[in-house]
Design a protein that fits this description.
By secondary structure, the protein is of the alpha+beta class. The chain has 2 helices and 4 strands, in the order H-H-E-E-E-E. The protein has a domain of 46 residues.
C-alpha cells in the first residue's frame, strides 16, 4: 500500500499544462477570455454609460437604441 502525496500549493503549480502542442493547449482552454455573460455585461455597461459599445458578434460599434442596442455593422440587436 502506498501513500498519495498531497498536490503542490497553487502558487507552485505551472500556469499552463506542460507538454504537448501550445496551440492545442490554448484551443482547449478558455485562454483567459471572457465568458458570454461577462462579455454581454460589458456591452450593456458601455451602452448604458456611454451610449455605445463594441458589438459582441462582429466588433463594430453598437449604439444605444431605446431600451437596447443595435450594431451598425451587422445589425445585431440587444434588448
Amino acid at each position: 500500500m502506498s501513500a498519495l502525496a498531497a498536490p503542490p500549493p497553487l502558487t507552485q503549480m505551472p500556469l499552463a499544462p506542460q507538454g504537448g502542442n501550445t496551440s492545442e493547449q490554448l484551443r482547449r482552454s478558455d485562454g483567459g477570455r471572457l465568458t458570454l455573460e461577462q462579455r454581454l455585461d460589458r456591452v450593456w455597461e458601455g451602452l448604458l454609460a456611454a451610449g455605445a459599445a463594441d458589438c459582441p458578434l462582429c466588433g463594430a460599434e453598437m449604439e444605444r437604441s431605446g431600451d437596447g442596442g443595435r450594431c451598425g455593422g451587422c445589425g445585431t440587436t440587444l434588448s
